[in-house]
């Protein structure tokens, strides 16, 4: 299949108008020559569309994709931070349990030492009175 010729007989217009038309035809030719890559075409291809909305559609899709990726990354980072905080809470609780068990055992030891001290004092008081 032959492609139709993109040559157009230009009426007598000023030089800037000719350049605009030729540039638009070149952009159209690029889009027709590379239909698979038209989605990845650089932004300068869309600059001369005359505001027809083609740039807005690509930009809108790109913005939605960036928003979605940013949202997913934010969720992953939040999940990691929450997991880290939960890990720290569990570690702190384990340390507190260890400290409280040590305090309880030391309290028992102190009470036993007090009892022994009272017994020794009673013995010394009793033996001192006999002499």
UniProtKB/TrEMBL annotation:
Annotated TM spans: 66-90
Name of this protein: LSME1 protein
Keywords tagged on the record: Membrane, Transmembrane, Transmembrane helix
Keyword flag Membrane: yes
Domain of life: Eukaryota
Gene this chain is encoded by: Lsmem1
Keyword Transmembrane helix: yes
Region (Disordered): 36-56
InterPro entries in alphabetical order: DUF4577 (IPR028099)
Species for this entry: Anseranas semipalmata
């Amino acid at each position: 299949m032959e492609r139709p010729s993109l040559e157009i007989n230009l009426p007598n217009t000023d030089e800037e108008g000719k350049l605009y038309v030729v540039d638009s035809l070149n952009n159209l030719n690029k889009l027709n020559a590379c239909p698979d890559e038209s989605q990845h075409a650089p932004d300068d291809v869309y600059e001369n569309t005359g505001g027809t909305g083609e740039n807005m559609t690509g930009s809108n899709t790109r913005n939605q994709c960036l928003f979605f990726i940013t949202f997913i990354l934010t969720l992953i980072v939040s999940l990691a931070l929450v997991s880290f905080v939960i890990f720290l809470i569990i570690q702190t609780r384990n340390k507190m349990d260890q400290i409280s068990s040590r305090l309880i055992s030391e309290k028992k030891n102190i009470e036993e030492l007090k009892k022994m001290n009272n017994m020794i004092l009673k013995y010394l008081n009793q033996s001192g009175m006999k002499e």
